[in-house]
Design brief:
- With about 290 residues, the chain is α/β, with parallel strands linked by helices.
- The protein has helices at about 15-25, 40-45, 50, 85-90, 95-115, 150-165, 190-200, 220-225, 235-250, 265; strands at about 5-10, 30-35, 55-60, 75-80, 120-125, 170-175, 180, 205, 210-215, 235, 255, 275-280, 280.
- The chain is globular and about 55 Å long.
- The model is unreliable at about 225-250 and about 255-290 (pLDDT under 50).
């Protein structure tokens, strides 16, 4: 009998790719998404176009922070639903707490009550904040997140640790490092830069262009549970601009902008490690955490 997997955030960038991979290997998948208005619903609906035609995929529109979860027959939960974005979290931190902390606790508690012992939680490299020396590693303490978004993700990890400790659940927390590829969110740099360059518009760059971070291609993320592979690597802000211009054709133009946002740029500009943790400790190296066997 094929495993049945619940994927929250199924209409999102990473979630839709994960669902396709699971269905492609023969699993039954129940996808949940609330179509948060962070970006256009039409884009998320398009992410689901191919999945809706698959007999092994079923979709339910629901909010994990408020609605019951469809857990009948589910053996594994992949919790990828979240309210994303470092800078937007500065404007409305309460909404990030509800979506990312309350939502995560409700998913963990629902899984516990349904006797589902395996959960994967999509966290973020933002949890390392500005005090963790690079390159990051999973054993390095992540105790000083510097944005509401990062704090909400770290809170989710701590809740996962508590549930793993109290109830013996196997919970893998994946700290994603700027995943990119087809269907990437329109607010992220690679999407925005290439769109602006293609339209001949100037690119606004925060800082002096020397900030670096790692990027993980979507198939590496799906196949390796957040691990970087051949598609990822370090890249500086000014290299984005040059590479994008070469691919899109028009000459590149860049305008500098004040960083502002109380250090939010720094929170998202230094990343190197790619790891998974299980209840706050190094995860067992069994099946890729992103696609439980």
């Amino acid at each position: 009998m094929s495993p049945r997997v619940l994927v929250t955030g199924a209409a999102g960038f990473i979630g839709s790719h994960v669902c396709e991979a699971l269905v492609g290997r023969g699993d039954e998948v129940v996808g949940v998404d609330n179509f948060d208005p962070f970006y256009a619903r039409a884009m998320k609906e398009r992410n689901l176009d191919g999945l809706r035609r698959q007999p092994r995929f079923r979709f339910l529109e629901a909010d994990v922070a408020r609605d019951p979860l469809p857990l009948d027959g589910v053996t594994v939960v992949l919790h990828l639903a979240a309210k994303p974005g470092v800078r937007p979290s500065l404007e409305n931190p309460a909404s990030y707490s509800e979506a990312n902390v309350t939502g995560t606790v409700r998913v963990l508690e629902a899984a516990r009550r349904a006797a589902i012992g395996r959960v994967v939680f999509g966290s973020s490299s933002s949890v390392y904040g500005d005090a963790t020396p690079a390159p990051f590693a999973e054993e390095t303490a992540a105790v000083w997140p510097i944005s509401p978004y990062a704090a909400s993700k770290r809170a989710g990890e701590l809740m996962a640790h508590a549930f793993a400790h109290l109830y013996g659940m196997h919970i893998a927390c994946l700290r994603f490092f700027t995943v990119y590829g087809p269907r990437q969110r329109p607010d992220l740099a690679i999407h925005r830069f290439t769109d602006l360059i293609a339209r001949g518009s100037p690119v606004r760059m925060h800082g002096d262009g020397s900030a670096e971070r790692d990027y993980t291609y979507i198939t590496d993320c799906v196949g390796g549970g957040g691990g970087g592979g051949g598609g990822g690597g370090d890249c500086r802000s000014d290299q984005h601009r040059r590479r994008g211009a070469g691919a899109a054709g028009p000459p590149d133009r860049v305008g500098r902008a004040n960083s502002g946002a109380g250090g939010a740029d720094r929170a998202t500009s230094r990343s190197a490690g790619r790891r998974a943790v299980d209840g706050g400790r190094p995860a067992p190296r069994r099946a890729p955490a992103g696609l439980p066997a």
